[in-house]
Amino acid sequence: MIVVVDANVLVAELLRRRGRELLARPDLQCLVAEDQWDEAQHELDKRVAAIVGQGPIPIS
Fold first, then answer.
1. What angle do CA 30, 44, 34 make, to 5 degrees?
2. Is 6 in contact with 31 (CB distance < 8 Å)?
3. Which segments of the chain are extended strands (E)?
4. Which label site among 9, 15, 31, 43 has the fewest CB atoms less than 10 Å from its CB?
């Protein structure tokens, strides 16, 4: 299966367990334009830094 994704979708899915599991599937090919890839990397770095800055995530 081939999927074309933009930066917002890629970042959102990388932050979810379900999304990481989906993107790790060997039968899935993701196509991302180079400028979208750069934007996704930048946005992912910002979001992860914000999450880490909030402190430990409570486990229930």
1. 45
2. no
3. 2-4, 29-31
4. 31
